[in-house]
Amino acid sequence: MTTLRIVYIHGIRTKPPEPAYHAEWDAVLRRSGYVTDIETRMLYWADIRPGLTPGVLREAKARAKARKAPRWSHLRPQTNSPLGYAIAFALRLADPVIRRVMKNLFEDVYFYFYGKRDVEDIRDAILDRMGAMLDEFKPQIIIAHSWGSVIAYDYVANRGYGGEIEALITMGSPLGNGWVQEHLGTTAYPQAVHRWVNVFDAMDPATWPDRRISNDLPGEHGEHIIRDVEIPSVYDQDGRRDAHSWYGYLMSEPVQNELFRIATSRSLREHPRPDA
Known about the structure:
- By secondary structure, the chain is an alpha/beta fold.
- Helix content is 43%, strand content 13%.
- A 6-stranded parallel beta sheet has the order 2-1-5-6-7-8, sandwiched between helices. A two-stranded antiparallel ribbon has the order 3-4.
- It is globular, with a radius of gyration of 19 Å.
- The relative contact order is 0.15.
């Protein structure tokens, strides 16, 4: 079977050192058995995140306020009703995983759109790093988790990537949030992406309030191109319920099936069966 060139983009929270974390993602794909012949790179931006000190965060929030940016408190739950509000509020109070994910997501949102490292915008620093990687590696597939999906979309939609991405796989994506879309400045489907699969756990707080993104990022004529797939339950490496776990998403059947489909399709194109 053909070798797949894959770029991983991780999400929020502090991460292990890049070599170890990259190896973890590779091990998950190889362990599944769906695809084993892979060549990968990781867009690692956790080394930029340690600069998120309380002072940097305060400055980023001040810049957002000065630009009259919408506040995250305006977000609504998926169920736009009194019951929906009550359920969302209760879950955020009761579930430590949800509280942790939401806190980190809020911080990274301000950090990404309004943060600076010396005189350079954090957003530009991350996107420049991604551009250099894509130009050098020319991947066929991008797998992006959480805020990594925002970075992937931001680059291919706003930076005008000149190559082609056979498949973009987003996992636990916050791209359904109007606040995120407004700051990205576009909701157009990226022309460089041939196929896009978006997977989500219904209890993943990073995907609230709109878990499905096909209606938010339509094609040129309003068509729904993105395939949204709900995963019933996502678990972490230790078997604990974690609706936002990169491990659980990457091990999920929809993600593995998509990778297997691409590998099989490319293999048939590159090594066609001889005529009978």
